[in-house]
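Issue 218. Parser rejects a valid record. Input:
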Amino acid sequence: MKRIYTKMALLAVAGLTTLGASAQSYLEDPKWGDNPENRKQNVLEYNYFSEQYNNQNYDQALVYFRNLIKNAPKASQNIYINGANIYKNKIARSTALAEKKLYVDTLMMVYDLRAEHFGDHATRGRGYILQNKAREYLTFNPADRDGVMKYFKEAVDASEGDLDPNFINIYFQELTNDYKNDNIGAEEFMDIYSVLEKYMIASGDEAAKETFEALFITSGAADCTNLEKMFSSRLAESPDDKETLAKAFGLMANAKCSSDFFFSVGEKYYQLEPSSNTALLLAGGFEEKKDFEKALKYLNEAIASESEPDMKEKLCLRVASSQLGLGNARSAADFAKQAIDINPESGLAYYLLAQAYATGASSCSDFARSSVYWLVYDTLAKARPLLTDDEDMAKQAETQMATYRGYFPAKEECFFRGLTDGSSYTVSCGWISGTTVVRSSGR
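Output the parser choked on:
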């Protein structure tokens, strides 16, 4: 045994030069002890600890570990890093609940000691250490919700905003789970969200930020009441902050809010940053409120400023639909035709145009009205094969085509007007016009 110890000592002394520029340097470094004799002994202990750790002789390594944290606690962070790894290994191998709990508690103590003695490290200081501590506790004791939340909060408080974005999302995921399980209330959830949101924005990690926002949206806490409470105070301080307005409007639109606050936020944001997307969201909200005048105002403004064809088509269809709802058939037809000009393959545009013609026909009299139904039928016939993505609307088009065939003029009336089936005919009924084909109803 004596020969083995002597060999280990010689190996340890041989490694002393790795701790300083010379063998003498460690004897002068107070982090290794109060006097040269203690320092020499602690350096030997450190080398024994490292050797046993590297050889996975963990029980023996812990003997040296305990001596080091008692006699040279500021010597090296590796003491605590390797010590934590040893206890994580013991936790993973433990089968007895009481034993596992003891090892978890000891692991937490190791992190606390590291934070105490190396908390001022430039890059791996107190905040960094406590973030790792919180993650480990979640890994090994996820059922202790109070403990998990306690350690994560301690890490946030200690980090002073220097938080790993992935850590933020881990914390927020756990917070979201607790909220869904009624372990915390909405007010506490929203308060912590507001704190973490600032740190996430500061991180500049866009991918992590998207995950963070998705968690918030699906949490169930992002309802109109909570959102209004949170953003009303923020916007009271900075009413023209575009980023805050954009976020408030986006989240409240997603929650389908319809309060006066939602519309005031949306209109303010539109003034500062007009866009067709914002106009669409506002228009949809005003349509829900039956305020079609304002809905059309935003849709018309969006159409005038939009240059992207797909979005412009979408806006024209929205206006056409809104105008039909208001009974403004002529305006609906105009916007449906604009959509067709942009995309001649738009089945919805032809369908809306047919509805506009059918509505407008009521202002015509006698034969002129019947001739409009030829135009309605033709337009529905164009819509039907283009409605492949909307089977319900396609069936509606088929049903309406059958209905309007019954509205065609009688064969006798066509005869007296000198019209024969299949001949070309130009419809002229107020604002409705177009070329079609004569078809009698057989009556």
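Fixed in the parser; the record now loads. The chain is about 70% helix and 5% strand.
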